Amino acid sequence: MGAPESFAAIADALAPAAVVAPTLAGHGLPVAAWSRSFGAELERIEGLLDERCPGRVRLLGYSLGARVGLGLLCRSPRRFETATLIGVHPGLDSAAERSAREAQQSEWKKLLLEQGVAAFVDYWEKLPLFESQTALPAARLAAQRAVRRAHSAEGLAHALEVLGLHGMPSYWGELSKLELPVSLVVGERDHKFIALAERMLSLLPRAQLSIVPGVGHNVVLEAPEYLVGLLASGGAR
Length: 237
Hints:
- The longest helix is centred in the middle third of the chain and has 21 residues, at about 95-115.
- The protein has a single domain (about 5-235), classed as Rossmann fold, CATH 3.40.50.1820.
- It has a four-stranded parallel beta sheet with strand order 1-2-3-4, with helices on one face.
- It contains ten helices and four strands, in the order ααβαβααααβαβαα.
- By secondary structure, the protein is of the alpha/beta class.
- The chain has helices at about 10-15, 40-50, 65-75, 95-115, 115-125, 140-150, 155-165, 190-200, 220, 225-235; strands at about 55-60, 80-85, 180-185, 205-210.
């Protein structure tokens, strides 16, 4: 439920470097621009990069954006110099996992469409995945909540349908083919994604892992200064 402005602090700190932050399907784009599959969304973003960044670029993605970013890496690895993936999931391994995730996401879509975005945001912010954010300054949380509530229920439901984990290809088998430097970033309190990152680390040829002290899943929100330092140094720390 983020938006390009979720990365504003990082983009400002990296100035004058040019930053392209695409809006994902269902997150504010006109309905006519919504991709109808995960693969179609990758193609759409590749088109944006062709227009705005004809050369090689450095990729940064968080959570859903990291999953989309990983898809782009696997499709066109030579387009990118480096990649920084925060809280990334490379995909589900089994049909049983996909079925269970689809059922969960169907419940999320039902909540969105029956009770609206505000009710869904209230539910979302109470998930254990985001528990570490309760210690953040109230103003920072309020700004994040405003971004989330600005979305439409129909848009987020569409995003769950086409970009959700259940419909995303599994990229586990592609990781060994990625020869570019990949920095995996995960919060110290995000135990599920630490395990995923450690598994990825064993498969990626040129990967490093940064575990960010004291924070949870959303390192972009909880520790933007850490990310700025990481990007400036060009590697894990």
